[in-house]
Amino acid sequence: MDAHPAPFVPPAPKPRASPPSTLQMIRIVYRNPLELWGEPSYNEKWISVSSIGGPLLIANDPGLIRRVLVDNAKNYKMARVRQKILRPILRDGLLTAEGEVWRRSRKAMAPVFTPRHIHGFAPPMLKCAEEFAKRYEAGGTTDLARDMTMLTYDILAETLFSGEIAGESGSFAKQVDRLFETMGRVDPLDLLGAPDWLPRITRLLGRNSLAFFRRIVAETMEMRRQRIARYPDGTPEDFLTLLLRAEGPDGLTRAEIEDNIITFIGAGHETTARALGWMLYCLAESPWEREPIEKEVDAVMASGTGPAEWIEKMPLTRAAFEEALRLYPPAPSINREAVEDDTYQDLVIPKGTQVLVMPWTIHRHRALWSDPEAFIPARFAPGAREKIDRFQYLPFGAGPRVCIGASFAMQEAMIALVVLMSRYRFDTVAETKPWPVQKLTTQPQGGLPMRVTRR
Ligand code: HEM
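^ thats the input. predicted complex w/ protoporphyrin IX containing FE below
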């Protein structure tokens, strides 16, 4: 019998032994919030503290998380800090909308994300992945983190607009990068509860990008509207057409369509890219896990089935991807705020409490997982996966505000992995020393330099 080597333990900050001072905390939040969490965050069911922003509850217990995200979800709105960072960019897009606007928008957008439409996106996803993969023919060393962002951006641009973006598309991609680099950050002034009129340096820098970006999206929408009017039967079934179809008194307003396009760009490509990069890195460090996955993707490639069906035939690949989402959840923190007082068991949650449901700590919690820091895809193999509590594994959140793009992301990831792994092998090099940093997503600081070879 094969002796399995010890599982790979990828890099992550060690839990802090003692809490930081307020000044240290602000510095850490600015640099890398993942370095903030101490031993209790990885061991306790919940932690109630009084912070500079008011009462704060860190919720790690699956029952408590269920209370906040599902059973009493109406008592928990989006947290103040999160809204301050994201709303100036995304306005009434689904991620940042609240109350009646959110309810109407979510309902109007449900038809956009039906399995039929997601499956319809499989061919363009495959086309983009195949086109992208050509760059690796020459081999060499590449930054896989940057590459995966480019690949998922290509896929999103294709499924959003079918390539029909107003103006020059290269500069659009560059502005997307700049915008999220400068604006998607927690400003220390927000944490200190400074008034809104005080300018935030993190936001000022992104203002020009945002104006440029919104103008292009508005022009792109207008171009498509005219095309639909002229050729009602000859327009591509991409997100843009589907969203424009949702326009109306019970559906979306024109401004909301624009906000949602920007939301999809913000929420829908870097997240998937991060998970792909971390997974390929973990597999490179555990070749005994990679080998059976390579066999699986080869078999899928040779099977002749359409790419929309691949996900059903890839239990090993899917398990490794889910394990990467556990160790490096692209959205490491889900933030809420209690609207009224609430209770759970003997815990009292006063009105105004900031509630942190953190996939980062929950996915590494000692009471919930065995060997939590190790990369062990078998946890998610069929048979084992069913034993994982719904509220201890939250890469896509849960409840009414669960990620609307989860099936899109899973399908996209599987297609990208079949194309990449059936052709190439990605190995670490001496410079591969990623360090997880929370910006908008869980990013590998230092990138993921990897050597590519043809299989
Ligand atoms: C691996 C990839 C992805 C991850 C890990 C992810 C994660 C998440 C999480 C955790 C939430 C819940 C946030 C909260 O409750 O505060 C969320 C919401 C959302 N996601 Fe994703 N996401 C991914 C891909 C996508 C894609 C591809 C799209 C769009 C095409 C998308 C669009 C959205 C939107 C619009 C929401 C807001 C839903 C609502 O509030 O009703 N996401 N995502």
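The longest strand covers residues 46-51.
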